[in-house]
Structures are given as C-alpha cells and as structure tokens.
C-alpha cells in the first residue's frame, strides 16, 4: 500500500529528546520519521521558553530554548530524518508480523519496526471553542492560532481571545484584512504591557474594533455574542480566528494499553522500553524510579533506547560501540572528514 510509510523507527514528538533520539538512531544506522502535532520542532523549549537562557546542557554553558533546538536540528541533519508536522499520532496497534501500525490525525499511516514515544507532557494543541456545532467550520471559517495570515487579506475577521497571541494576530491583520474585530470576554488583557498599549492605540485609531462579550453561536458567517449587559449582538465575518492558548494534551497515548502511572509511561532503565516490545518511551513522558524531568536525562534515555532498538531492527547482530572521534564509519554517516 503506497499510502503506508514504512520505517525502521517512528519518533513521536520533536521536542529536544525526540530530536536527539534521531541522532542516536542515526549513529546506529536506524532510519526514522518524526511526527509532531505542532508546525515546528522544539516542544517545550520553543513553546514555553524559546527566548529564555538555559544553563544545564552539557558542554553548553549558555544557550536558549530556541538556540538548543537549532543546534539539535543541525546535529541531526546528516541523518536526514523525515519530519511530519501538524500531525498528531492517534492510534498504535501491533501487526501480525510484529511491526507497529500508527495512524495520525491527518490520515498518514506508519508501519514501523520500533516506536519512540517522546511526547513530553503531551501534544501541544490549541484550546478549542466550546460553542455548539462549531467544529465543522474548522479549517474553512474557523482557525485556531493560524501561522499564515496572508489568507485573511481583504477579509472581515474576528479574532477571539485576550492573550499575547490574540493581540499580536489582531495587530498583524490590521491594514491587511478588510476589517478586524478583537472579541474578548472583558476589557482587560492577559498580555505584555507594551503590546496592550500598541493594541489600545490601534483601537483608538479605528484600525481594530473591540467587542466585549462571550461568543454563544457561530453559523459560518455570523458570530453571536452575549455582551456583559445581557444583550446579544451579531458580528458578520468571513473568518473567525480563535487564540485561546495552546496546552499540552497526552490525548491518545493514554489509550495505547501502556499502563500509565499518573499520565506517565513506565519503562525499565536498561532499554527504556514500555511493556510493549519495540515501543520505547523517552524524555518527560516516561517514568521510572529516580526519574528527573531534565533534558540531559532524556538524552541519556534516548541513547540507551537506540541501542536497545538495534536488537529489534538488526536481530542477532552484535553492534560494536564506536566513537564519533575516531570511527571512519561514523564519519561517513556524519558526512565529515
Ligand atoms: P517536550 O519538549 O514536551 O516535547 C514533546 C513533543 O511531543 C511536543 O512538541 C508535542 O507537541 C509532541 N507530541 C506529544 N504527543 C504527540 C502526539 N500524539 N503526536 C504528535 N506529537 C506529539 N529542562 C532542563 O533540563 N533544564 C532547564 O533549564 C529547563 N527549563 C525549563 C523551563 C520551563 C519554563 C519549562 C516548562 C521546562 C524546562 N525544562 C528544563 C524541562 C524541559 O523543557 C523538558 O524536560 C523537555 O522539554 C522534555 O523534552 P521532551 O522532548 O521529552 O518533551
């Protein structure tokens, strides 16, 4: 079946640990695909502290969340892992031949000899609006935290939310869209002071309209809003953009029969394997006695999990330990020397 992607290894999660997993697999000549629910690599490092300094990465006295992820992407580039962004791995099932079949939210199917769950605290997904029947407009009239705003040029849009992302989106669209309204439940914002000041200025100048209230209905062309003084008003729109925050959801991983302990996947500390053979769990998602949720610990876990995977991918072969400093074989793989 051409629609099925066959691979030695599938990594679920492109956070720091998932990325380093690809490096360790690459050194052992195990090819991989990496899936993330987000549109980019980096996990918590990029989503939660991209610009903040980090001081406890071995050999790197100081970098940032974003800087670390860029270094990891550069480090794994020689192994050419295939990235699949904006896709959440939804299902995992054992096949009769022992391989693992996984399906994503976008309908991609993977058939892998080994799986590395590097899902951290879960898939970062936008919080959805709770208005009844609204899900059917997703992608056509309703957009959550859209990356590309050009599609809204010349349109009448309502941006729903009151945080940095909502205000930034409204400001970015002012002048580009035909009309921009920011809809928020109250006239106060949970955002950076300078950003709020810029936003207020744009409202005073008439570049952005401000509507206060709760959305109670959406039919694809009108947003129904309940105002604080108990009125109902309709806002006409071409598109509704919701920026209600992005929060991690462990989601489907809880349904894969891995006997979670407090939302974490138990593993052994020799192979970092779950109760399912060939299914490993590394980084923040796993648990074992003494577990610490630190990047350096995840890197060690990924290293031993990759070695453990050789027993599944290359059964019966004994793989010698080689140093990247001296092994010509590894130099060839890394494309150096
Ligand atoms: P994550 O970074 O959480 O990445 C997991 C990825 O998996 C996410 O991108 C998610 O979208 C994706 N995913 C999950 N489920 C699915 C699915 N079903 N399908 C597709 N994709 C999925 N650690 C340190 O060592 N030093 C520090 O100084 C430090 N500072 C921190 C500061 C803050 C504010 C925070 C919040 C954390 C900090 N940490 C620090 C912890 C560190 O960020 C985590 O240990 C690390 O990010 C874990 O990496 P990970 O790859 O396991 O998971």
UniProtKB/TrEMBL annotation:
One Pfam short name: Pyr_redox_2
Coiled coil: none
Keywords tagged on the record: FAD, Flavoprotein, NADP, Oxidoreductase
Cofactor binding comment, as recorded: Binds 1 FAD per subunit.
Superkingdom of the source species: Bacteria
EC class name: oxidoreductase
Reactions this protein catalyses: 2 reduced [2Fe-2S]-[ferredoxin] + NADP(+) + H(+) = 2 oxidized [2Fe-2S]-[ferredoxin] + NADPH
Family according to the record: Belongs to the ferredoxin--NADP reductase type 2 family.
Annotated protein name in UniProt: Ferredoxin--NADP reductase
